[in-house]
Amino acid sequence: MVGAESFLGEQQLSPNTADQPSALSNTGCEAVTRRTMDNRPVRRRRTGVVRHLLLAVAFLACSSQLLVVNANSWWSLGLTPIQQPEMYIIGAQPLCSQLSGLSQGQRKLCQLYQDHMVYIGEGAKTGIKECQYQFRQRRWNCSTVDNTSVFGRVMQIGSRETAFTYAISAAGVVNAISRACREGELSTCGCSRAARPRDLPRDWLWGGCGDNVHYGYRFAREFVDAREREKNYPRGSTEHTRTLMNLQNNEAGRQAVYNLANVACKCHGVSGSCSLKTCWLQLADFRRVGEFLKEKYDSAAAMRIGRKGKLELVDKRFNTPTPEDLVYIDPSPDYCLRNETTGSLGTQGRLCNKTSEGMDGCELMCCGRGYDQFKTYKHERCHCKFHWCCYVKCKRCTTLVDQFVCK
After folding, report:
1. Which partner from 183, 207, 253, 353 sits 20 to 30 angstroms from 69, CA to CA?
2. Would you say 311 and 244 are in contact if contact means Cβ atoms under 8 Å apart?
3. Model's pTM, two decimal places?
4. Which domains does the chain have, with CATH numbers?
């Protein structure tokens, strides 16, 4: 597996808090001093109680702003189109300052690797779409609610669903960056330099232009984990526990792409004789990655913080999670009803399958509230025929079907 050395031999990025303005000034909460008409400050004496009350009000106001800021995520890059760096003319606002949701460490990486940002956005978009596909028949269907937090407040809960979202998003970045390297879109990487597999027959050639999953893994680790690693929460705190959970699930997503990559070969020879084969490293189809992580979601381990400040199993009877496994720290809501506090959208208005006994069935999807039935027209291709040479001609059929919607 990939070693623990830092990306491209560079020093690990860490936030330089000494050079930062205070949190109050960052959020627009600045101390205001009363002044006279000639702009001289006036000193006013306040009692200790009044002063403490004013400080508490200011703290609460600024805390609410900080919550809004922290709600942003790099996932928003998947919902906002990113222009190529060369499209920014001299004197225009730099690319990295226009991207929302980046942490300090991620912004530094953006400045160093601006040509990577388009593909990070593509990776985030791929992860979001795959999440929605895998959960399309579940009460929680991975819906995006806005362009900043993307998934909304439901991500504040350290649930199984949050674990899957972190994993599939990290996997999407590995996938996109690895492909971009192979296609020559990035200045700092190219085709894969993976070693020749030992079990590859000697007469098969190795060295076709493969997906650079090694580079994609390392860059995704630096970029995606930067937000978590630059936090400095007290060891054993709730926030520290959530950070460890996020890091574990990010790694599980990256491992899925890395380990599912396989050898692909192409035959060469007269009339398809396959007298010669050329082989290279190729990423697995991302749908397979999504299905693999969905299985990990189903078997995710419930964790808690231990005495040594590390995650440990709630139930010791289960096996200790490996880097490939998903973990969670909070139970999942039922997602049945709309709840602004937890971010649950509820299942009212969702389509369900009357004959299914699974999660997409009306009984489970509607949480026992019942469902409404209506008829709708369904259009599909039918009576397709193959014509020589070489096309398929179909008719368009319309049928009236029953559909069911949760109350």
Report:
1. 253
2. yes
3. 0.78
4. 62-345 (no CATH), 347-407 (3.30.2460.20)
185: confidence class by pLDDT, cuts 50, 70, 90:
very high
DSSP state for residue 279 in the 8-state scheme: E
Distance separating alpha carbons of residues 263 and 234, to the nearest angstrom: 45
Q: Which single residue is written with the structure tokens 């009212």? A: 348
| Residue burial 376-388, b: 16+ Cβ < 10 Å; e: rest | eeeeeeeeeeeee
Within 204-352, strands assigned E span 204-206, 262-268, 276-282, 301-305, 311-313, 327-328, 338-339, 344-345, 351-352
Look at the block and give the residue holding tokens 């760096």.
85
* Burial (Cβ within 10 Å: 0-12, 13-18, ≥19) of residue 92: exposed
For residue 237, give the 3-state DSSP assignment: coil
Q: Tokens 């990577």 label which residue?
A: 116
Edge-to-edge strand order for the sheet containing 327-328? 311-313, 301-305, 327-328
List, for residues 90-122, the tens digit of each pLDDT value.
Answer: 444 568 888 888 999 999 999 999 999 999 999
One-letter amino acid at 217 equals: Y
